[in-house]
Amino acid sequence: MALRDAVGPYFGDFGGRFVPESLVAALDELDAAYREAAVDPEFQAELAGLHATYTGRPSIITDVPRFAEHAGGARILLKREDLNHTGSHKINNVLGQALLARKLGKTRLIAETGAGQHGVATATAAALFGMECVVYMGEVDTERQALNVARMRLLGAEVVAVKTGSRTLKDAINDALRDWVASVETTHYVLGTVAGPHPFPTMVRDFHKIIGEEARQQVLDLTGALPDIVTACIGGGSNAMGIFDAFLDDEGVELYGFEAGGEGIETGRHASSITLGRTGVLQGARSYLMQDEDGQTVESHSISAGLDYPAVGPEHAWLASIGRATYEPVTDVEAMEAFRLLTRTEGIIPAIESSHALAGALRLGRDRGPGTTILVSLSGRGDKDVATASRYFGILDEGASQL
Question: What residues bear N6-(pyridoxal phosphate)lysine in this entry (predicted)?
Fold first, then answer.
């Protein structure tokens, strides 16, 4: 079986559906609706039409030679998901799920968000389709991503600051799941990554695989060959799974995911769930997650709110276990240096999440040298991270702390 044919609910030993009884019927209904929509020409045509006239697809490929001068002579190409409407890859999945919600007769969308990109995309789709919208966001993330909180509210969404646990993405997902249990008759939960119970990992991947399908053809058209390496940042793993999917069965193409190494994996303050995690169950699926000696989930850390999550999508866990993809940590320092380098050399301000993939590409380029082509998923733009980056680099003028 081709690797691209894996559809869940299990990917090897990972995935599944570990949920309260009250959600089983809703997940069965969603699974049936998705399988029907996946082969429905009318549904697919409506989604393609939205991507062409609203999202702005196809997103372009950008050659970045000045940035690549720092990568040992390798050629680096960026898949520009940052140019999508709402500023990231998240809109690909959200529009698909919003169409499904309408098909199911749901009138209310809920979502979790870390960096705010998924929340903004969900609030945007709710406005477009005339639906009520509630977004759960950890209190810590509402503070470091205040601009996106304002965007969601302007779009008409209610933003609920979650004050439990570490007050980050994991806790936002927990509260969104609690809401869904209580409101499933009218509400669709727009899960934002390739995690959670079946069918979310499969469905979210499928809505994002357009990233890899476009990029594969664009690189062939530009260079006459497939890239040697495809890279992406990994939190839950949605943008990575989207760009990896089209290359899974190309044996000559290496796949690299770069996790949040935070302050260094030796410090314990990181979000490297594949590098240092163990198999366990979190938020409806079996995957690799960060645990203590008693099997309790431990808190993650990353300068990037979008990667600050102690687990990973089950398909990534499977790809790591069979050796098809390689996953390595990138520290906050490495990511921020790549953030500054791309900004200064190419005039492109990336999301801090995406900067982990850029740092990984620099590392791989220096190792492999000239003649290597590396394709990077630039999953989001850095508008939302300007305040964080300005504080990190100490470039704010006195009195400008409210940026």
Answer: 90
**What domains are defined for the chain?**
54-87+209-393 (3.40.50.1100)
The two three-digit tokens of residue 92, written as one number: 């690909």
Kindly report whether the global pTM for this prediction surpasses the value 0.85. Answer: yes
Taking the mean position of all CA atoms in its chain, how far away is CA 11? Answer: 19
Of 381, 384, 383, 382, the C-alpha closest to 81 is 381
Distances (CA, A) of 362 to 212, 347, 357: 21, 17, 9
Alpha carbons 355 and 353: distance in angstroms, whole number: 5
**Preceding peptide of 9 cis, ω within 30°:** yes
The predicted pLDDT at position 306 comes to 87
Laid out side by side, the sheet with 373-378 consists of 61-63, 75-80, 373-378, 229-234, 254-262, 325-331
Active site residues: 90, 112, 379
> How far from chain centre, in Å, is Cα 362?
21
